[in-house]
Every structure is written in structure tokens, then in C-alpha cells.
Amino acid sequence: MRHYEIIYIVNPNLNGDEYRELLKKYSEIIVNNKGVVIKTEEWGKQRLAYRIRKFYNGVYVYVEFCAMANSIVELERNLKLDDNILKFQTVKLADKADPEELIQKAQADANPKEPSLKVNDDADGQDYYDQEESEVEDGEE
Fold this sequence. Notes:
Helix content: 25-40%
Radius of gyration: 22 Å
Number of domains: 1
Number of strands: 6
Shape: globular
Structural class: alpha+beta
Largest sheet: 4 strands, antiparallel
Strand content: 35-45%
Order of helices and strands: EHEEHEHEE
CATH architecture: 2-Layer Sandwich
Strand order of the largest sheet: 2-3-1-4
CATH class: Alpha Beta
């Protein structure tokens, strides 16, 4: 399977139910063509750089997935035919990818661990927390 990401811009005038159905429709197209959706991010309504189909705003959606090459043709065909999709772009990230490994990585990125702070003693016997070497200056009193 190949690893892809797609960003598409949705009509900002859709109500909540129509918007959810649209997201579900494209996720199902990926799954029905033997693909695996790794993650879907909704970036929200944003101003477009230029007017597209008389719209100045659009709702951005990012989808990362694994699929076979022939399923991309079907997905893009459906995106082109849908009037509620203003624009889209698909990017191939890798030729060979393991979907299970990518899903685990995406879940780990979604639940980051808290950074641990390292306690150091300076020459005066006072403790300070080391976050980055560049933030700590010598001779500061």
C-alpha cells in the first residue's frame, strides 16, 4: 500500500449534518477501495487566498491514509464531481507503508507525553530547570 495525504476545501455554507455526511462519504470511498484512513483533521473555516467559485472562505479538511494506486483515481473522480468540494490536492508520501504502524504512530502523536524537566545544580548550590542549553546563561545573578 502507498501512503497518501489529501487536503480538500469544502463549501463553507454547508450545515453540520451535510458536512458530516461529506466527510463520511470520502472516508468510505477510501475504505471501500481497500484503503485505511489513518487520521482525519478538520482545520476549520479559513479565508482563501483567492476567490474560488464565488467563495472567499472554505472549510479545510486533512486526511492521511494508505491505499492502492487505483483507489486514488476513484477518490479524485468523486471529488471533482462534487460541487461542495472547492479544491483538493493529493500527495503521495511513500510508496510502501504499513497502515497499522502509521495508525499507532498517529495515536502516539495525538497523546504526547509531558516533557520531563531536568534539575541541575549550579555553582551557588541553587537548583534550576534545564529546558534548553541556549536559555541558560552563565554568570546570571
